[in-house]
Amino acid sequence: MLFAIRDVVVSGGDVFQLTPSMLFFIGENLLNIHHVRRLRFATKGLSVLPMKITSDHLWMESFGKIVCKAQKLGKHVCVHTHINHANEISSDFTYRAMEMIQDLGVVVRNQTVLLNGVNDHPNRMLDLQESLGEIGIEPYYVYLGDMIPGSENLRTSLQKLLLLEKETRGATAGFLTPQYVTDLPHGGGKRLAHSYEFYDRKTGISVYSSPKVCREKFFIYCDPIHTLQCEDAQRAWQHHCPQSQNRMLENARAAAAAAAAASEFHQI
């Protein structure tokens, strides 16, 4: 069965870099596609360049036209921004920019990446959530860091994210509480962090399923090496021991398969 694309994210960098005419061209043409119902414009600009909103009148005019057309068509336009710490919010400029966006009736949501030593403490995360709420931005996601080269020192373990969620949930309103997620490698999509099929805290290997992506496939996320509780696992990853690595991965997949088989939806 084929599903029409209903959601489109306009990103590829940052929409603040688009000229007013290009912004309108992209937005208008996407809205002209009947089955596209929702547009998300992605920018970090609300923290690093909020004065773009308050001073670039042609850009805001183009964005306003897109929003107006979407509303007439019964479609939805929102802004997704990326703020990791409360100190990134420059009070006066960000407040004024948010007022202008909210005057258009546009929802703004925030996506945060959990960063080692930056926002991985409950007090810092709660401070961020409250600061976002004060200016009308919805805390949406908190991501585990992607497994990309050169980022090992910035990533945290899944266990730390789970503990952070446990400590922060219930401290403020539910609509100011983000979802803590793992954006799975190799196209697995976003999964609630605690929804893993298997997680070995010693080896740092977590295994997820994503039935709507591929029911027969498992997706694996690995904690950063410096957080592993097992010295053998640390050595296996640090010294690139394929045999040990493959054994840990296969054991994790087997355990995940057993867990998934015991909790198939059709058995509920």
Please tell me about this protein's structure.
Helix content is 38%, strand content 22%. With 268 residues, it is of the alpha/beta class. A hairpin with a 3-residue loop joins strand 9 and strand 10 (214-222).
Short description:
With 268 residues, the protein is of the alpha/beta class.
Number of helices: 9
Tell me how many strands there are.
10
| H-E string | EHEHHHEHEHEHEEEEEHH
**Computed Rg:** 21 Å
Topology readout:
Elements: E1 7-10, H1 20-31, E2 38-43, H2 45-48, H3 51-55, H4 57-72, E3 76-81, H5 91-103, E4 107-113, H6 122-134, E5 137-143, H7 158-168, E6 179-184, E7 189-192, E8 198-200, E9 205-210, E10 214-222, H8 231-238, H9 242-262
Parallel strand pairs: 1-2, 2-3, 3-4, 4-5, 5-6
Antiparallel strand pairs: 6-7, 8-9, 9-10
Helix pairs in contact: 1-4, 6-7
Features:
alpha/beta, 7-stranded mixed beta sheet, 9 helices, 268 residues
